[in-house]
Amino acid sequence: MFTRIGEMWKHLSIRVKLLASFFCVVTLVSVFNLYLNNNNLAITDQFNHTMTNYYAINRIQLLVEDNYNAVATFLKTLDPEEKDRYYMTKKEIQDMIEPLYQEFDSIDIYFNIKAIANSTDMYFKFFEKAISEREQGVDNYYVGFYDGSDIQKYTTGYIQSLLNLSLSEGRKLYNQVVKEAQVMRSLSLVTIAAMFLFAMLIGLLLTNRLVNPIKKLAQVSMRMAHGDLDVESVSIHSRDEIGILADSFSIMSENIRKYVQDLEQKVEIEKKLHEEELKIVRMEQLVKEARFEALQSQINPHFLFNTLNTISRTAMFENAEKSMKLTKTLSNLFRYRLRQKSAIVPMAQELHIIGEYIYLQKVRFGDRLDYIEQVSEECKSVHVPVFLLQPLVENAIIHGIEPKVQGGKIRIKARVKNDSKGEAMIVVRITDTGVGMSKEQLERIKSFDVAAENSIGVANVYHRLKIAGGQSGQLTIHSRLNKGTSIEIRFAKEAFKDACL
Known about the structure:
Strand 6 (474-480) and strand 7 (484-492) form a beta hairpin. The strands form 2 sheets. The protein has a 5-stranded mixed sheet. A two-stranded antiparallel ribbon has the order 1-3. Helix 2 (14-77) packs across helix 3 (80-97), helix 3 (80-97) packs antiparallel against helix 5 (107-136) and helix 8 packs antiparallel against helix 9 (321-338). 73% of the residues lie in helices and 10% in strands. The chain has helices spanning 2-11, 14-77, 80-97, 100-103, 107-136, 142-225, 241-298, 301-317, 321-338, 347-365, 377-380, 390-401, 439-446, 456-469, 497-500; strands spanning 344-346, 369-375, 383-385, 408-418, 424-432, 474-480, 484-492.
């Protein structure tokens, strides 16, 4: 049987072994604790029972005295409240005497309880006779009271005797409990020591079964790590995770030896291939550099800028003022972008270049295009990404105003507004009275896909706003077909200040 259990133990996983060992120890501790708790509960119940009896007997004694005082006071004052108090204490005394028979086993205590019950019944009769005669005005009513008082004194003696007997019974119980407690203490110490030794034994056996194989694997692994590949196979009899790991390690070490041998044979070939690859990489790098220089020289934006200046001067000499103004304005647009070493500019510069762009478009649209700018001086000093607003104005003209026969109006409004946290926010709203958009067009624009048709400018502004402005940057669009479009940009007042510096 033990051989079979040992074979089963070898094939269990480490997790199951640990859980089984832990379960055994916890079960023993739980059973012992349950036994101690039950024993302590029994002792507690005994003490509670004894204390309840003490309280009941003492309570009867107090009620007897209170009952006597109530009768005496009533006979003197004829106070009905004192009469009620007498009958109330009488009933409580009678109710408390009867249960005492069930609480004690001693014959002496039984006779004391019986004497208390009989004596109380007798003096109740005398007291009630005195009460009745006092109410009827009989002169010698006090005779019954004195007779009842004599019996009440005997009742008090019986109660005191019962209390003494109960204390004697309690002392015996206490001595018995003390002996049981001493035995339980000794038993507890022995049981705790035994469970500790048992737990240590299980822990040592389990750790030896787990740690020793791991030590073997660690030693062999360190030898392999230092370059000794001719290590012996690690033999472990258990079939748990460690046994599987040892078998896998043996297979791995054998495969590594084979791989190392193959690698040694291929070293020379790979060296030659590596040298050839370096030559190829160097040649590809030279080709890329040549390609870059060729592309760089194909288009030079400064050439276009200089050419526009030449056209502007020629128009000036020919007194073509309108052509000169248009050419100069277009030249300013190129100069604005070319001269920006930083991608962040004051909003005033952005608004100026928008004004230049509007001038070019008004030459084309004439009175069909109306432009209104409502920007506070505080907003003009705020820094924004270059070309943050111009693409939105351009979209409004091309897709909103141009398709509308009667033309339309474009308004730029910027103000400073505090958010719910008290942080200063810049709110810029660009509205137009163009043809507006359908719901489908609006949803496509709101996707902010740079590859989507008619949404490149908006998507570009949105992504640059998010990248440069962080969480504070927001762009919202509202549009109604044949009514117009409104684009609102929000960002923290200081969002781009550091980037500018």
